[in-house]
Design a protein that fits this description.
The complex is a heterodimer of chains A (67) and B (450). Chain A is mainly α and 67 residues long. Chain A has 3 helices and no strands. Chain B is globular and about 60 Å long. Classes of the chains: A mainly alpha (67), B alpha/beta (450).
Chain lengths: 67, 450
């Protein structure tokens, strides 16, 4: 996944629709403001994706006394 | 002893004065209230002061001690509670307009424990709105007792300032990304984020379920230990000798660090070597990926928590808090889950490092207290939290204590990280180390003005 290419393709409209699917209505202006905050998170995600952690269960376990 | 000297005594020292009859809990509580009255206009540490009930609690503690009923080392000790923590019938606002009228119907579990321990609760302390980093104008920010032109730090700024300024002897904060340790570093006091789950969060309004912690703020590690014991109901063994202990240094220098802060940290490492400890660099290979993973975990959780209010009363939030929460709705589910996979991966890397070292250490913050808190999700916010957020992701215990003084003579914190459930080790190492590090006297500007 190329994070830079991904970010070029993402627009405020994508963010607005994504939020709408999750139940939140944003104005185009509000969605535009979120672009800057989203970029580093998605760039970081692209790097995390390259770690190859697909098989790792994301569900947390409470620490036990043997950790 | 002057009144000011009394206000800066340790909890055990106050306990000895109580039990020898030289001081009464009511006298000390009145002194704390007088101190609060004098300092509050400048510092704004409290949202709700509970003077009347504090005097009642102090009277009860006094009577009990007089008749031989001794609940705990916290009997009669004035403490403060962050305003995210429920107290029955008392407004619990979370520093927000949304919850400005919220009055809980029962105490949080930790408040019940503090009452059982005989502590005197002076009031509910100020915090940034919902712990997100922006002060709501209804409450305003808390200023730093070392320099009121600087912030005390977010989001447990009120609890931290109250301890620093001698308004109380310990306070409870919460920490989702550094909110105990950031203000502790900025104000030169001890702040512990315990192991995830160590302090029961029932009755605490958090920010993100998988990242929230609650813990003590105090002027020394022994005092923090006493508060933590009361919060958990568990005794902690904390005796540690530095000689022979293996310290692993992580994140010594990062982008944006103030040179004086690094110098203070390096001096602390030198002191450890002189004390006979081993100090060497530790390696956590994927630590640099922590920040994006953290926000990919935090923001969807926080957005979910606030989803109803964001729909019904969005204008009751500050614009900064609101846009940070809205960002959580834009993060895809797979990105969130990948971040959760990463946090497990990071945990294993930390455990690996802790198999070679007794504890890990880092500077707590890149700089001394700034004029105002940076925007949580902005570049400066990321830099501010780079050393604190990893330990919310992993759930490892992490403690900040004062290591010295940096730019403009302001406090610089050092962070100690230990294995899960080794909160006692964190506190023990902290106790041994703080005896060797320069500690702050009451800041000049709050020494007078009782």
């Amino acid at each position: 996944m190329n994070a830079l290419r991904l970010m070029k393709d993402i627009s405020a409209e994508h963010i607005r629709l994504s939020a709408q699917l999750a139940g939140l209505e944003l104005t185009p202006e509000q969605a535009d403001q979120l672009l800057e905050g989203l970029e580093p998170i998605l760039k970081g995600d692209a790097r995390i994706a390259r770690l190859g952690l697909e098989g790792l269960n994301p569900l947390e376990t409470i620490w036990d006394q043997h950790d | 002893m002057t009144d000011l000297e009394l206000l800066y005594q340790s909890i055990p020292q106050i306990g000895r004065l109580y039990r020898s009859g030289q001081l009464s809990p009511v006298e000390l509580t009145r002194l704390c209230l007088k101190r609060i009255e004098a300092q509050e206009p400048a510092l704004n540490a409290f949202i709700t002061l509970l003077a009347e009930s504090a005097i009642e609690q102090a009277s009860r503690a006094e009577e009990e001690l007089r008749t031989g009923v001794d609940h705990s080392p916290l009997s009669g000790i004035p403490v403060a509670i962050k305003d995210a923590i429920n107290m029955v019938g008392i407004p619990t606002t979370c520093g927000s307009k949304v919850l400005q009228h919220h009055r809980p119907t029962h105490d949080a579990t930790m408040v019940q424990r503090l009452r059982t321990a005989g502590a005197v609760i002076l009031g509910k302390t100020n915090m940034s709105e919902f712990g997100m980093g922006a002060a709501h104008p209804n409450y305003g920010p808390t200023q730093n007792p070392w320099n009121p032109q600087r912030t005390s730090g977010a989001s447990s700024g009120g609890s931290t300032a109250a301890v620093t300024a001698g308004m109380c002897f310990a306070a409870v904060g919460t920490d989702t990304g550094g909110s105990i340790r950031i203000p502790a570093s900025y104000c030169g006091v001890v702040g512990l984020k315990p192991t995830y789950g160590a302090v029961d969060l029932e009755g605490v309004f958090g920010l993100a379920w998988s990242l929230d912690h609650a813990g003590p703020l105090a002027r020394s590690c022994p005092d923090a230990r006493l508060l933590l014991q009361a919060l958990t109901g568990k005794e902690l063994k904390t005796e540690v000798k530095l000689k022979g202990l293996r310290f692993g240094v992580i994140q010594r220098i990062l982008k944006g660090d103030e040179p004086q802060a690094t110098q203070v940290f390096d001096r602390a490492c030198q002191i450890l070597l002189e004390a006979g400890a081993q100090v060497e660099e530790a390696h956590i290979p994927d630590l640099p990926l922590t920040d994006p993973a953290y926000f990919a975990v935090l923001l969807p959780e926080a957005a979910t928590l606030h989803s109803r209010w964001l729909l019904d009363q969005p204008h009751d939030y500050t614009s900064i808090t609101r846009s940070q929460l809205e960002l959580g709705f834009a993060i895809p589910a797979v990105v969130h889950l990948r971040a959760r996979q990463f946090r497990r991966h990071l945990k294993y890397q930390f455990l690996q490092a802790l198999s070679h070292h007794d504890v890990l250490i880092s500077p707590t913050m890149p700089w001394v207290a700034p004029a105002s808190d940076p925007v949580f999700t902005g570049e400066e916010g990321w830099l501010e939290g780079s050393r604190t957020v990893p330990h919310n992701l992993t759930g490892l215990p992490a403690l900040s204590l004062n290591a010295g003084f940096g730019a403009q003579g302001l406090p610089v914190g050092l962070q100690i990280i230990a294995r899960p459930h080794a909160d006692g080790l964190c506190l023990g190492v902290g106790s041994a180390l703080e005896a060797l590090l320069p500690q702050g006297h009451p800041p000049q500007n709050v020494r007078e003005g009782m």
